[in-house]
Amino acid sequence: MRLSNATLGDLPEGITRPTYDRSALTPGIVHIGLGNFHRAHQSWYLHRLMQQGLAQDWAILGAGVRPHDRAQREKLLAQDCLTTLIELDPSGKSAEVVGSMIGYVPIEEGNAPLIAQMADPAIRIVSLTVTEGGYFLDPVTKGFDAAHPDIRHDAANPDRPRTAFGAMVAALRLRRERGIGPFTGQCCDNLQGNGAILRQTVVSLARLSDPDLADWIDANCTFPNSMVDCIVPATGPKELALVRDLGIEDEVPVTHENFRQWVIEDDFCAGRPDWDRVGATFSDRVHDFEVMKIRILNAGHQVIANPGEVLSVETISGCMAHPLIRALFDKVEREEIAPHVQPVPGMTPGAYVDLIARRFSNPAIVDTTRRVAFDGSSRHTGFLLPILRDALAAGTPVEGLALAEATWARMCEGTREDGSAIAPNDPFWDDRVQAARAARTRPRAWLEQAQIYGDLKDAPRFAEAFERWLALIRAEGMAAAIRRYVEG
């Protein structure tokens, strides 16, 4: 049955559907970046509130700024912006249709429709999932990259911006001029201090063209930090077949694990939905929650995905079923990552490692090593290298962290040990391949990528361990190197 408002009442038995009147919903949120994660996470929390008869004036309008977002827009509009969520658990699966999104802003060069929508007084939150690498950060300093061509364009053409942030600045300019007031900018990406990073990007971009507006945004808008967590695989033929097997024709279904977490700083200048009524946590300790998650889950993903790619292990659950990769995960997490994580209410670092190991091992979640290994340029700098710096400062072990960097370097050579090619998998793939191939004969060449490692190349304990591990991988293979580390 084709998914639409008209067919909601006729969906197969056992599939949860909206019980609220979608025609009565009014928008309160514009969300930029309508990928799978948003629809399995923020959109779901809002849907659950709506199921209780609440938040009817907080419906979501989707938005995008990239030309290829148009295809996603067309697919969602064709099914009235409904999405089938399929929860995958080893004990079985369940499905529900989420209806909290009610429209999708037209995508045009210059982003005029998006600017107009965000300038509407009804919009009180603008949220984003644009990936960790989408915030125009210098990879070493984490400061604002004012030299990026898109940023330079938006500074010179503030009324016809290319970026989501330029569109936000333009909308806030209109709101200030019209006396409407600010909105909250809500980052939902996996970045430590994600709200502070969003503030930095928006305010810094505004300052390039209108310093007075930048001061107004900084003083009046809020950008709450948050920690978001749910494993959401990419949608491919298997997921499309899965939703068809349920009796639903949905062009953009989403599969997800049976776990969600959302910890949010309660800092919303124009109001917010009561997400805490449906499981979200409002806390002034977001930083501690996000450090635990980013260091143990996200860094752990990189620890296993890079060797998994080299060893032709296709999924994350497959990596956890591989005796050596699982042993690598356990040792690095417990001995080199967990010591640099503080406990949070209800959870110790050790217990969180156990939780993540169970989640990664779920065979019902077909999360590919390729997806997890994507954009190592952002993920290693954001997830692993901060732990490495803390470990070097504290004098704690770094052998496993150095091995993780060596496995990434080996993966970026572009071939697996079985001889198959690794397709480009990084926004800077050509640069990574060039450095990885230079490191075949001179391992230190990999560490000389200043935009990634900065002064870490001059840290003897790390650099020497890295060179040793990469040389061993090259000489004896990935499995031999992992075995050497695991066995001590």
Give a verbal description of the structure.
This is Mannitol 2-dehydrogenase. Keywords: Oxidoreductase. Residues 286-468 form the Mannitol dehydrogenase C-terminal domain. The mean pLDDT is 96. The protein has helices spanning 36-40, 42-51, 69-78, 112-118, 149-156, 164-178, 194-209, 211-220, 237-245, 286-310, 316-321, 323-337, 349-360, 369-373, 376-394, 399-411, 429-438, 444-447, 450-453, 460-476, 478-487, and strands spanning 27-32, 59-63, 83-89, 92-98, 101-104, 125-128, 184-187, 226-229, 254-256, 261-264, 281-282. It folds into 2 domains: 5-283, Rossmann fold; 287-487, Orthogonal Bundle (N-(1-d-carboxylethyl)-l-norvaline Dehydrogenase, domain 2). The chain is built from 21 helices and 11 strands. α5 (149-156) packs across α7 (194-209), α16 packs across α20 and α20 (460-476) packs across α21 (478-487). Helices cover 47% and strands 10% of the residues. A hairpin with a 2-residue loop joins β3 and β4 (92-98). The strands form 3 sheets. A 5-stranded parallel sheet has the order 5-2-1-6-7, with helices on both faces. With 488 residues, the protein is of the alpha/beta class. The longest helix is centred in the middle third of the chain and has 25 residues, at 286-310.
